[in-house]
Amino acid sequence: MGLQEVVSYHMTSVEREARLFALEGKPRLEQYVKLVNPIASDRYVMRQSLLSSVMEVVERNARIRERMALFEIGPVFIASEGNDLPDELQRLAIVLTGPRCIPGWQPADSETMDFYDLKGILAALLEALHVGQVSKPDEVGYGNPTYEPAGHPSFHPGKQAKVQAGDRQIGVFGELHPVIRQNYDLPDSPLLAAELDLDALLSLIPERYESQPVPAYPPVLEDLALVVDESLPAERVAEVIRQAGGKIVANVRLFDVYRGEKIGAGKKSLAYSLTYQAPNKTLTDRDVAGIRTRIIRRLEQELGAALRS
Length: 309
What we know:
Elements: E1 4-5, E2 11-12, H1 14-18, E3 45-46, H2 50-61, E4 68-78, E5 87-97, H3 115-128, E6 145-149, E7 155-165, E8 168-176, H4 178-181, E9 191-197, H5 198-203, E10 220-229, H6 234-245, E11 249-258, E12 267-276, H7 285-303, E13 306-307
């Protein structure tokens, strides 16, 4: 997925990890697994955050690399009460910073990566692992991944989200908090980071999933622009569209968000590209009109949405 794997030390110090959690208060030494014979004076405990370790890699490379897209898979070590050995929990950490593409002889997107670049990587990862796609009701059954606002103190307020599958949280991601940035020697471009519970993620991968055949009949493409409350998540609108359209709605893609005087205060316009496709026939204009009417009615009744004129 265009990311480079890194491997960092499992050993760290309370001070090193405290930089990432400065807004939570300094962690206490007794919370960590302490080493009796550390390899260095500044690595005397076992880490509790994989993201903290990857942040050190980013900091060391920031002086020589404009763009970084890194990931690491590894354990964190949580002291277990009444047990001599700590719990080793597997985590996945991702960090992005710099331009989307490295400049070359061909035209490239030189804009800096943002929140949605990281969200896109996570969404593609979960889709490739078929999380939420099960062939039987009793398999896995945690539901499709969703993204909801989060309140993690290490990330920028309003630029972070948690990833959930049903009621189970997989992880959190977002742009690093401005106060936390000051604890690291980092470039000026935004730094996007994620830390996922890999044990939870692996348990959500189904052993079997339904594959979709190549469509035999042509699709019907249509755009739908809706005016909704500012606080309403775009994914919630897409969810209602899928539910109302049923299996005929093969794809729903948000391609535009507009705010302005024409929409009104406290409102936003969401434009979706819809793909209608039937597995057994070519859809007529009348077929599509009926589905569209059903979708709009559900959006009005459940979300208070209105078609943008």
